[in-house]
Design a protein that fits this description.
6-stranded antiparallel β-sheet; 5-stranded antiparallel β-sheet; 15 helices; globular
């Protein structure tokens, strides 16, 4: 098999978002400019696809001694830190965390009472354009407006309130309160859209009709956008603005879109390698053993010839060469494995560009949970608790990064020699942060074992962390009972109602286990996600509590139910005799 060196196919459309930006910020008639603007347009197609364009504006309160510092810090830090957050996080979650951190810092500075720290309070509005969606994060009276087809509309609400007839007073701002309350708005974008971020020194003195007229000019290049921003500030000054003046314009040239043909071409720039056998070579790897071979994929244990390291090579099956959905899932699996760095998650390595489509993963030693269950039928509850605890820890790694695994099953779980659980497959992972990106896998049931997939996922709903909890519960049930809770593999149609998901009680298989164990599993395996525990550790604690309630030799039994009939009859006679003696003693007294 010949080596080849072509660029790895992109995980994103060939035509990413295309936008330009230009702005202007002046102190106006004031001695100091308390306004600030900042923005960033990524130069790499990958960063443009997964993070998008950011524009920010802030207006420090005029009475704040250091409000100019607050404004500059807010726009610069938000724009910089946004690109440092994990791509898998939702934009709303990213913005909330960044604003919380900014607000905490500003508020703590103000609380010191020191002159050099006092008065760090500012309004803030951020615009994030990613794929075909605009995300607006807003607090205060700066504004975000949209010019579309010649019509101007305001997308934010001013956070002002009247106070005892003194006029409008700012009711929300960064640094003013210990906890920040920001608005979040989404807007679908179209090619040709122009977004305007402005301070009240501009929109407070220019009516929307005048702003709309001033923007009736070419607004495609950075120079044109900067000229238009200056024109807005000039017009506001002429209209009597006595405040700082700032305007930031962002023009959307094009949004990502592609036909099915384009998507297929993008995902098939590499060749799927043929089925291999021991001794075959590919790009510096020698096949040692065929680990798995099916109609969907092939996995091999390979040795890297450069350093003799043992790895796993996984390649898609040629049966799916024309399936956009399958190829997209395979590319996503690579992406996930390269970005998670955790000892409980199989690591997927970077490898040099190749003309073949495959990925290289670490070699994980141990046995699968399926093999363990075959070897250890009917285990004691205490014996599985370390496995459950480690499995929950591994699964939460995905959740912390804004991902849902969706296909947890015994075959995807490896028990290392030290007892640690390692998850080795994530081809069905749902990345929450990519929910607004176009994908061929949207609302598609993951290709996994139906016996472990949560009902809401099987019925086409969105997966959540509670969906993975269901899968964990299904495996725990099978470890204890020796049977899956819901056998769906051979069914022609899937159960559609809660009644169809009736769980057979665990005690039918394991009468020796505490009743509380079955209760905990029944809750986790509820058809309704809202009835499951909110967090995985709550399920683990309920299992741990079950072991403490268990008595030696079987289920916990109330004291009154223990012992033989003769035993309790004897105790009854003794207690009666003692009562008579006590009564006689009282009478004699």
């Amino acid at each position: 098999m010949n080596n080849g060196h072509q660029r790895v196919p992109s995980q994103f459309p060939a035509r990413p978002l295309n936008a330009n930006m230009g702005g202007c910020s002046r102190k106006g008639s004031k001695e100091r400019n308390d306004d600030a603007i900042a923005g960033h347009i990524p130069t790499s197609s990958y960063e443009m696809h997964v993070k998008g364009v950011v524009g920010c504006i802030a207006d420090g309160i005029s009475t704040g001694r250091n409000s100019d510092v607050a404004a500059r810090t807010s726009v610069i830090q938000f724009a910089q830190d946004y690109y440092a957050t994990p791509e898998s996080w939702r934009i709303q979650d990213c913005a909330a965390r960044l604003l919380t951190a900014l607000n905490s810092w500003l508020y703590s500075q103000n609380a010191t009472g020191m002159p050099e720290s006092d008065g760090k309070v500012t309004t803030f509005t951020a615009l994030i354009l990613r794929s075909n969606t605009a995300h607006i994060i807003h607090i205060g009276d700066t504004r975000c407006m949209l010019l579309r087809d010649g019509q101007l509309q305001t997308l934010t609400d001013d956070h002002n309130a009247s106070f005892m007839g003194t006029g409008e007073t700012l009711s929300r701002a960064l640094g003013a309160e210990p906890h920040v309350r920001a608005d979040y708005v989404q807007e679908r974008i179209q090619p040709g859209d122009v977004f305007l971020l402005s301070s009240d020194g501009v929109h407070g003195f220019l009516p929307p009709t005048q702003i709309q007229t001033l923007l009736d000019c070419p607004l495609r290049t950075q120079e044109e956008l900067e000229n238009a921003s200056r024109a807005l500030c000039d017009a506001a000054t002429e209209a009597g603005s006595d405040d700082n003046l700032s305007a930031l314009l962002i023009h959307v040239e094009d949004i990502p879109s592609e036909t099915l043909t384009e998507a297929h071409q993008r995902l098939t720039t590499q060749t799927i390698p043929p089925v291999m056998k021991p001794g075959n070579r590919i790009d510096g790897y020698v096949v040692q053993e065929v680990l798995h071979s099916s109609t969907r994929s092939h996995a091999y244990r390979v040795r890297r010839t450069t350093d003799d390291e043992i790895c796993v090579l996984k390649a898609p099956s040629s049966n799916f060469a024309d399936s956009i959905q399958y190829l997209e899932g395979f590319m996503l699996e690579q992406w996930v494995g390269r970005r998670i760095d955790n000892p409980q998650i199989m690591k997927i390595h970077d490898h040099e560009d190749s003309r073949f489509l495959y990925y290289i993963a670490e070699w994980v030693q141990g046995e699968t949970l399926r093999q363990w269950m075959d070897r250890c039928p009917q285990p004691a509850l205490a014996d599985i608790l370390p496995i459950v605890s480690s499995l929950i820890t591994a699964t939460r790694t995905f959740h912390r990064l804004g991902m849902v695994h969706r296909d947890l099953k015994p075959e995807n779980v490896i028990l290392a020699p030290d007892g640690t659980v390692k998850i080795i497959d994530f081809g069905s992972v749902q990345v929450t942060g990519f929910s607004d990106l176009p994908t061929a896998n949207e609302n598609v049931v993951p290709e996994g074992s139906l016996n472990y997939i949560a009902p809401e996922v099987l019925t086409g709903g969105a997966a959540t962390n509670l969906s993975d909890l269901f899968s964990v519960g299904a495996m725990v049930y099978e470890m204890l009972a020796g049977e899956v809770p819901f056998a769906l593999e051979d069914r022609v149609d899937l159960p559609a109602t809660a009644f169809d998901w009736t769980l057979r009680p665990l005690k039918a298989y394991r009468p020796d286990l505490p009743e509380s164990t079955g209760t905990a599993l029944a809750r986790v395996l509820s058809y309704d996600p809202g009835k499951r525990p909110e967090v995985m550790t709550e399920f683990l604690r309920s299992l741990q509590d079950s072991t403490s309630r268990r008595v030696s030799g079987g289920q916990w039994v109330p004291l009154i139910q223990r012992g033989t009939t003769d035993f309790w009859r004897g105790w009854a006679m003794v207690s009666t005799t003692l009562a008579l003696i006590l009564l006689i003693a009282l009478l004699l007294r």
